[in-house]
Amino acid sequence: MENTLRILLTEEGADAEDVDWLTGCLREELLRLDVDDVRAVPGGEPPPGARAVGIDTIGALLVSLGSTAGALTQVLSAVRAWRARCGESRPSLRLTMDDDVLEISEATTEQVTEAFDLFVRRHSTVGT
User: Fold this and answer.
1) Residues sharing a CB contact under 8 Å with residue 37, sequence separation 6 or more, in sequence order
2) Is the pLDDT at 52 greater than 70, yes or no?
3) Residue 61, strand partner residues
4) Which long-range contacts (CB under 8 A, 24 or more apart) does 82-87 make?
5) How deeply is 40 buried, as exposed, middle or buried, from its count of CB atoms within 10 A (0-12, 13-18, 19+)?
6) Whole-angstrom distance, CA of residue 46 vs CA of residue 75
7) Distance CA 50, CA 10 (A)
């Protein structure tokens, strides 16, 4: 069974061009992993609690993880490393898999690591 992870990203004060560039950079990194596909998709609605932003300032990726056991771990490790390289402008992320949602905005590197590890643990028991 194929799992799909949806990644929404926003960056406060960024325009649509900046968000498109960030989304494209993340997509390029994720395509290097052992995943079936990474597609850019329309962002849709802003995450709950987000300040009023235009739909065009939300980047969205749909990651088809395939059936590889470690694909989710690889993807989240790549996302964590990518976000850390963004410097002080660290984009806010909303990860959705099945009905599970993980939102990261103002968090330390350690908090992001802990949240991602928990997200992976919750999904590693699915279907076992």
Assistant:
1) 62, 63, 64
2) no
3) 7, 40
4) 82/25, 82/26, 82/29, 83/112, 84/109, 86/22
5) middle
6) 22
7) 9
Mean pLDDT calculated for residue range 44-71: 68
- Asked whether residue 33 carries a pLDDT value surpassing 50, the answer given is yes
Alpha carbon distances (Å) from 99 to 4, 23, 96, 102, 122:
11, 23, 7, 10, 11
Give the C-alpha distances (Å, rounded to integers) separating 61 from 10, 27, 88, 126.
Answer: 12, 7, 22, 22
Read off the pLDDT of each residue in 76-97 and give the average, rounded to a whole number. Answer: 87
Q: For residue 120, is pLDDT > 70?
A: yes
Instruction: Give the whole-angstrom CA distance, residue 73 versus residue 108.
Output: 19
**CA proximity to 33, closest of 77, 97, 80, 84:** 77
**pLDDT at 60 (0 to 100):** 92
Q: Which is it for the CA torsion 116, 31, 86, 78, positive or negative?
A: positive
Give alpha helix (H) positions in 1-128.
16-31, 71-85, 109-124
